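Hallway conversation turned thread

IA: we were arguing at lunch whether anyone had actually written out Fe-S cluster assembly protein SufD end to end. Turns out nobody had. So, for the record, here is the sequence (450 residues) and right after it the structure tokens. Reply here if something looks off.
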Amino acid sequence: MTKFNDQLAQVQGPEWLTAKRRESLELFTTLEVPQESVEAWKYTRVDVDFDALRPHGKRDVVTDVSALPRSVQDRLTGTDVGAFLVLDGPDVVYRTELPAELTAKGVIFTDLKTAVEQHADKVQQYLYSVVPAEVPDDTTIAAPGTTPSKSPDPSEGKFSALAAALWTNGAFVYVPRGVEVELPLGSFRVMSDAGTYTATRTLVVAEENAQVTFIDEQDSEALPGTYAIGAVELVVKDAARVRYVSIQNWGEGVTHIQRQRGDVARDATLNSLVVTMGGTLSRTEMQSYLRGQGSNSEMLALYFANKDQHFDHYTLQHHAAPNAYSDLLYKGVNNDASVGVFSGMIKVDLGAQKTDAYQKHRTLMLSSDARNFSVPQLEINANDVRCSHGSTTSPVDQEALFFLRSRGIAREVAEKMLVTAFLEDVLGRVPLKSVVKYIEGIIAKKVGAA
């Protein structure tokens, strides 16, 4: 506690933010590290010595792309983002500016630390509003005219509280009413100090009838004993459209824990894609809170775990208003001695009639030593709904494999073709060509190592 208090004292900011950080740190001290006895963490254990954690080192700004890590250079070549930030640990080391026409329309895209200084009114209004430090209780933000109830406890409190207290930077996006940002905006996060931790926060706000795409990528070399903790808050106002893409490709030895949550208002749409490929242990939570009538949420994900990687995904499709639609498709591959975990909940509040919700999780097992745990769930409190969920875990289709081999294709090549096709089902629903190409490249490397 003393060590974290010292670190908190070094973080500058306005009094309202400092007070929130202190409150979050005090909460952190009262919470236990989640254990297997907690249902949401039944198959995942995070071994962390908080006393031994030290913050990621500071980094200087660079003026040339060639000074960035090779992985970032390769990613930025030919990408179609309109503007981007590059963060190395806690610091923005490189950035490009928004086009002048977007700035003139009131669009804001900067790092969160700068946003606190230059756009304090907007940051204070929305920061911590969607992903609070404490374990979420949706009774505080229930939709008008509905009966609120408490969400399932994902037990992320310990890590969320730490991230809320000690986040050092992140991205801030604000799109005013009626403005459409055609090209995606992006944040590329890297780490370069082994045995450290970094805490980041992303806040995206789309006002009424606004539209924006945000790409959040993480990449590093192997970094034993390193922790990446974060939170993503997506505020989607009436009739707005937000597309959020998270691509996690940390190096071996990194533990990744991140909570992503969208607050979706009336007739608004949130499309999310979560890609998990790197790190040794990854726990990612994606929640859509459909609080407005006619709101819409598409939740996509794919992952490929090999060696001893452990990937855990927790999802929540929370319908708090009538006539809302949500569709979830998560697909993963487990190879070697890896572990995959999926726990998904469709929750429909009393009064959320005409809900239309789907949840599908499919896993392809390439090794008898790999394990996969899938827990799809429904909690329905309305009587006029259409909700379904399903989960399948299976090895490579032997008939399809036989078909390919009978046409002269070697077994190894045939298996790689089937794995690629299995995951392409998700990518086919993503209209971002450069992002899809990048993900396909990561998949090809993973398949090649299979």
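OS: looked through it. The chain has one domain: 2-396.
IA: good, adding that to the notes. The chain is about 25% helix and 35% strand.
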